[in-house]
TrEMBL record:
Protein name: Putative glycosyltransferase
GO CC, one annotated term: Golgi membrane
InterPro entries named in the record: PGAP4
Keywords of this entry: Membrane, Transferase, Transmembrane, Transmembrane helix
Transmembrane segments annotated in the record for this chain: 12-31, 214-234
Entry GO MF terms: glycosyltransferase activity
GO biological process per UniProt: GPI anchor biosynthetic process
Domain of life the protein comes from: Eukaryota
């Protein structure tokens, strides 16, 4: 009976303390907005409806804000292909939502060998259009050739910006839309690139959420260790009970999702956070314009093939890259126009 009472005297405060933490974490997760955008793998019917709505939205806003003045901080280039649906209008519609009349100058970089309906319409609407492969046929019947073309097109579009007067260049692919708070997020990113991250050449604004590890797990483990150490100091429990409590707390934190720390941090600071870059994905990359000539000159000659595409080439280069700890854009592409498979 004495041992049972002794066990209870240690266990009950510990269970209460850890239970309170579990409830507190759950409440914080429920209160914290989900900031990071998820992928929107729309089926063909959903995609057509979404893109048509985006096109109408873009055309309405375009009528209100037809002229874009130069920006000293940011210029935007969108890599475009003929997808037979109004993808470019969807991107532009989301940019208008974020920036309105202050939208930075946008250049549309068409990678097709011929002009097509959507790009011609946008040209008539006085958008800046550059066709980098005009009247230059290419063979994409083999996967390696398609990937090589995709990589080469990316560097060519980036190269268009090497003489830009803007300090930063945002290179977007045409099957994304940006976060509704994108403008403020990019402004906070610009501030970091100007100050604490002045050595960084580029920052990726998108990574597949389920594959995120570098930024999320250290934050989860750090919070877990801090809370557990505090409880251990306050309660001085027995080792077995402490271990059980630690495991329960870690599992609960992990179950909140790997983006919980990023969401909570953003809700407090209203700022993006740069972490080490994981090799994947180039739908949205924020380049320091001064670094672009060196990046293009060094990487445009690199051979690309299956398993070694443009994202691998960029990440394995000597240039310093980072990524945001949550997605500032969402990938809406159903089928890659070039690879003919899931993007």
């Amino acid at each position: 009976m004495f041992h049972l009472n002794l066990f209870a005297s240690h266990a009950i405060p510990l269970i209460f303390a850890y239970g309170s933490l579990v409830v507190l974490i759950s409440m914080i997760r429920a209160w914290t907005p989900h900031i990071s955008l998820e992928d929107h793998r729309l089926n063909s019917v959903q995609q057509e409806e979404f893109l048509n709505v985006s096109k109408l939205k873009h055309q309405s806003l375009q009528a209100k804000f037809p002229i874009r003045s130069p920006s000293r901080d940011l210029a935007i280039t969108i890599v475009t292909a003929n997808r037979a649906q109004p993808y470019i209008h969807a991107v532009l519609g989301s940019l208008f939502d974020a920036y309105g009349v202050d939208l930075p100058p946008v250049t549309l970089c068409s990678v097709e060998s011929h002009s097509y309906g959507e790009i011609e319409q946008l040209r008539r609407e006085r958008w800046s259009v550059v066709e980098i492969n005009k009247d230059y046929p290419f063979n994409t019947s083999v996967l390696s050739l398609r990937i090589a073309k995709e990589t080469g097109d990316y560097w060519k579009c980036l190269n268009l910006t090497r003489n830009s007067e803007a300090r930063y260049t945002l290179l977007l692919e045409d099957d994304i839309f940006v976060h509704e708070r994108f403008r403020g997020m990019v402004e906070s990113l610009t501030y970091q690139m100007d100050t604490t991250s002045s050595h960084v050449d580029y920052a990726k604004l998108y990574h597949i959420n389920r594959l995120r590890h570098i930024s999320s797990m250290p934050q989860i483990i750090g919070v877990y260790l801090l809370l557990s150490s505090l409880l251990h100091w306050l309660l001085a429990p027995r080792p077995v009970l402490t271990l059980i409590g630690y495991l329960v707390l870690l599992i609960h934190l992990n179950n909140q999702g790997n983006l919980f720390p990023a969401d909570f941090r953003y809700s407090l600071t209203d700022s993006v956070y740069l972490t080490m870059s994981e090799s994947c994905c180039t739908p949205a990359v924020f380049f320091r314009t001064a670094s672009i000539p060196a990046i293009v000159d060094a990487l445009i000659q690199e051979k690309s093939f299956a398993g070694h595409a443009k994202d691998h080439i960029l990440d394995e280069s000597r240039f310093v890259g980072r990524e945001t700890d949550f997605n500032l854009v969402s990938h809406i592409g159903l089928i890659s126009s070039l690879r003919r498979n899931q993007p």
